[in-house]
TrEMBL record:
Major localization listed first in the record, in broad terms: membrane
Protein name in UniProt: Sulfotransferase domain-containing protein
Domain of life of the organism encoding this protein: Eukaryota
Single GO cellular component term: Golgi membrane
Region annotation (Disordered) ranges: 95-114
Active-site residues (renumbered): K158 (for sulfotransferase activity)
Protein's membrane topology: Single-pass type II membrane protein
Keywords: Disulfide bond, Glycoprotein, Golgi apparatus, Membrane, Signal-anchor, Transferase, Transmembrane, Transmembrane helix
Organism name: Glossina austeni (Savannah tsetse fly)
Length: 401
């Protein structure tokens, strides 16, 4: 019986001991796992906080560029409090932070109300570019705005004015109105405010340009341009007046199917004896006559004459002269051009609008109709004295036949 009692007692103790042990194990496990979870959470929180700070920093730097580097405490730390309320303005659609270019290391000691970053933050080249752009745009006077032109391509019609404009606007410091505005000859009554509205946006240091070839031959234009700005620089492309007249005629004929022949229009009474100086394509070629009017308002030094022939043969040379005249660095060079044998004209490797090689449109470089050689000779004879006068006035011998 004693043995039986003893057996029963030891069994009970054993059970109790086991139960106590199990309880202890359970309590210890629970405690440890809580401890582990807590440590883990705390670790994670710290890590994500760190990450959050770096991300915010990048976003703010990328978008606002206030450059919140605070050296107030002679420590290199970033005070995120100073960023609260900053309006984030996106500068660019892509905010990629790849292509790391520069590393900003901000190690540091922290201080009150400031978050110290003990990490290395990497900023991309793109972000730095946005920085520079923003700073530029924020500089007083550097906000893009429209200005009246400083330079005009005033003519001459059908001499290569479009080519000149397209070539010179490759320069980053030149901005031009895309189409002919015709302010001084057709829309003058609308006022300068209207004119300025047709100009492109520019920033400080950029030249505003416009080309309307009819300005050269319109009576009131020299006076009006002078009234707007007596320092306006004037570019004049000129071409052998005979080929210019044929080009002018070709353009008109392309719009009118029943146009008379060139020879019928250029001469009076069907013979080549009398040149019809009232016919527009002939009249415009008497350059000396129109130049006289311009020189009543502007000194010769404010005009630059560009050879339409050389603009085709050697565009880089003529564009070099134009850049010098406008006080621009020679940025547009022969590297920008190639000769397109099919078109028979120089074309652009790339431009502001397109990054692939391209030529001027179909209306530039048209095939001219055959003109009787006797008519051409007679016109050459007619222009010769006027050309000589023009060479004298400009001091340039254009060597037209
Ligand atoms: N690179 C290049 N490509 C094409 N055409 C060129 C070029 N350079 C000068 N030219 C000559 O420009 C002539 C047209 O002159 P404009 O642009 O002044 O014409 S317009 O007055 O604006 O209508 C145009 O006249 P046509 O040949 O009669 O069409 C061309 O001879």
């Amino acid at each position: 019986m004693f043995i039986a009692w003893f057996n029963g007692l030891s069994n009970r103790s054993l059970v109790i001991t086991i139960l106590i042990c199990m309880s202890l194990i359970y309590v210890s496990y629970t405690f440890n796992s809580c401890l582990l979870t807590s440590i883990n959470r705390s670790f994670k929180r710290n890590a994500s906080r760190q990450l959050l700070i770096s991300t915010n920093l990048l976003e703010v730097v990328a978008n606002v560029t206030i450059a919140p580097y605070s050296n107030n405490n002679n420590n290199s730390f970033i005070n995120t409090n100073s960023l609260i309320g900053v309006h984030i303005v996106p500068l660019s659609s892509t905010n990629s932070t790849n292509n790391s270019a520069t590393t900003i290391s901000s190690s540091s000691s922290s201080s009150n109300n400031s978050t110290s970053i003990n990490s290395i933050t990497t900023i991309s080249a793109h972000v730095l570019e946005a920085f520079a752009k923003y700073r530029l745009l924020r500089q007083p006077g550097s906000r893009p705005s429209r200005h009246l032109p400083d330079t005009l391509i005033i003519g001459v019609k059908k001499s290569g004015t479009r080519a000149l404009l397209e070539f010179i606007r490759l320069h980053p410091d030149v901005r031009a109105a895309g189409c002919e505005v015709h302010f001084f000859d057709r829309h003058y009554q609308r006022g300068l405010h209207w004119y300025r509205h047709h100009m492109p946006y520019t920033i400080e240091g950029q030249i505003t340009m416009e080309k309307t070839p009819s300005y050269f031959v319109t009576k009131d234009v020299p006076h009006r341009v002078h009234k707007m700005n007596a320092s306006t620089k004037l570019l004049v492309v000129v071409r052998d007046p005979v080929t210019r007249a044929i080009s002018d005629y070709t353009q008109a004929a392309s719009k009118k199917s029943d146009m008379k022949h060139f020879e019928e229009l250029a001469f009076v009474n069907g013979s080549y004896a009398v040149v019809d100086t009232n016919w527009g394509p002939v009249k415009i070629g008497v350059y000396a006559r129109y130049l006289e009017k311009w020189l009543q308002y502007f000194p010769l030094s404010q005009l630059l004459f560009i050879s339409g022939e050389r603009l085709i043969m050697d565009p880089a040379y003529e564009i070099g002269r134009v850049q010098d005249f406008l006080g621009l660095k020679r940025v547009v060079t022969e590297k920008h051009f190639y000769f397109n044998a099919t078109k028979g004209f120089p074309c652009l490797l790339k431009s502001e609008a397109r990054s692939t090689p391209h030529c001027l449109g179909k209306t530039k470089g048209r095939n001219h109709p055959h003109i009787d050689i006797a008519a051409i000779e007679r016109l050459r004879e007619f222009y010769r004295p006027f050309n000589s006068r023009f060479y004298q006035m400009t001091g340039i011998n254009f060597a037209w036949p």
